[in-house]
């Protein structure tokens, strides 16, 4: 091949999406590997999507997304100029990195955390700085503060953390912000915020409204169940939001996505009922898996994490044979998304057998 790929590109890992499940003995195929919402969109959301057709297919969408911007600004009590969109919050994270960091600059995050972080940082040509999690799977914010250098441009704090489900407290982030230089942007990535019922957890918008060097990431993929439409956004200071719009892929936020987002915001009461069910299922799953012998951490997301170490691959195979795909991080642990009740029942059914591999 005569085309020359960029030097160092071969060392950048590829993003690994969650895999569908094989059929179990009773025909079950439960994909619990991607933290998706198990429910179909609400009827009112489907109606809004249908109404957006066919013009949303053959015409370019509005880049400004005025209706969704206005609805979010009112919902979050921020100015419209504070909001910038992308094709999912992962694309907005990419915009942030490209806008703020380049060759020689550092982007910091905890590890293990969202696996796209190191990929996005390296694609931008910046240097990833990974700070190990604490023994209980949480962010070590004092260690992250100590790791800040004059090259640090951006710090991601995933709250709740993916894949461990742990949260950072309001007090811990407050102390952390006192140690972060004003020119370093702290990004509170809250993809799973709707499932977070921890009263002590940091709230991104509270920090955004008090610190000019804080941005917040949200998504419609998880609680709102619009993963396939790719709707994410940042809440940031106007100059940062402007930079994100420059870094955005043009027309990435489709008219269908915009319509789905507006309709979902209008149906939040109904959506909250579904969220409450998933939170209750998360607590049931946690109790049952622990009783079976799996070391599941407390989670504030729509998944649970079992730090299974070298047994992770074998445990994932036990679930696979039952017709359930989970997300295996080899040598580290397994993450199990909260699905419909019958899917969660299947996980519980074989969890004792899985625990024997520890």
TrEMBL record:
PROSITE patterns: AA_TRANSFER_CLASS_2
Domain Aminotransferase class I/classII large: 31-345
Keywords: Aminotransferase, Pyridoxal phosphate, Transferase
Stored InterPro entries: Aminotrans_II_pyridoxalP_BS, Aminotransferase_I/II_large, ArAT, HisP_aminotrans, HistidinolP_aminotransfase, PyrdxlP-dep_Trfase, PyrdxlP-dep_Trfase_major, PyrdxlP-dep_Trfase_small
Broad EC category: transferase
Record bears the keyword Disulfide bond: no
Required cofactor(s): pyridoxal 5'-phosphate
GO molecular function (one): histidinol-phosphate transaminase activity
EC number: 2.6.1.57
Residues with PTM N6-(pyridoxal phosphate)lysine: 222
A matching Pfam family: Aminotran_1_2
NCBIfam families the record matches: hisC, PRK03321.1
Protein family membership: Belongs to the class-II pyridoxal-phosphate-dependent aminotransferase family.
Known function: Aminotransferase that catalyzes the conversion of aromatic amino acids and 2-oxoglutarate into corresponding aromatic oxo acids and L-glutamate.
Subunit and partners: Homodimer.
Protein name: Aromatic amino acid aminotransferase
Annotated organism of origin: Leucobacter komagatae
Record gene name: pat
């Amino acid at each position: 091949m005569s085309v020359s790929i960029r030097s160092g590109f071969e060392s950048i890992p590829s993003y690994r999406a969650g895999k569908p499940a094989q059929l179990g003995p009773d025909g079950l195929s439960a994909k619990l590997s991607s933290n998706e919402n198990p429910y179909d969109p609400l009827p009112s959301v489907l109606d809004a999507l249908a109404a957006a057709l066919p013009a949303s297919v053959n015409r370019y969408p509005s880049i400004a997304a005025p209706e969704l911007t206005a609805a979010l600004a009112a919902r979050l009590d921020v100015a419209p100029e504070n909001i910038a969109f992308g094709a999912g919050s992962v694309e907005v994270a990419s915009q942030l990195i490209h806008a703020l960091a380049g060759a020689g600059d550092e982007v910091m995050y905890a590890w293990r955390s969202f696996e796209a972080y190191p990929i996005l940082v390296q694609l931008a040509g910046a240097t990833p700085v990974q700070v190990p999690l604490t023994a209980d799977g949480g962010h070590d914010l004092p260690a992250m503060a100590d790791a800040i250098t004059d090259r640090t441009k951006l710090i991601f704090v995933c709250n709740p953390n993916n894949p461990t489900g742990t949260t950072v407290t309001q007090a811990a982030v407050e102390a952390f912000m006192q140690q972060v230089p004003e020119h370093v942007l702290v990004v509170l990535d809250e993809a799973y915020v709707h499932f977070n019922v921890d009263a002590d957890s940091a709230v991104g918008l509270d920090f955004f409204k008090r610190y000019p060097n804080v941005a917040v990431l949200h998504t419609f993929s998880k609680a709102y169940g619009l993963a396939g439409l790719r709707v994410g956004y940042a809440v940031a200071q106007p100059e940062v939001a402007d930079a994100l719009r420059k870094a955005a892929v043009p027309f990435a936020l489709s008219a269908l996505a915009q319509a789905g987002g507006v309709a979902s915001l209008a149906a939040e009461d109904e959506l909250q009922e579904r969220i409450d069910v998933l939170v209750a299922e998360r607590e049931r799953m946690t109790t049952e898996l622990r009783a079976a012998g799996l070391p599941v951490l407390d989670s504030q997301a729509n998944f649970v994490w079992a730090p299974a170490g070298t047994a992770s691959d074998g445990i994932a195979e036990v679930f696979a044979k039952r017709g359930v795909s989970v997300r295996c991080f080899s040598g580290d642990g397994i993450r199990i998304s909260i699905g419909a009740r019958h899917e969660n029942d299947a996980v519980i059914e074989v969890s004792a057998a899985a625990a024997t591999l520890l």
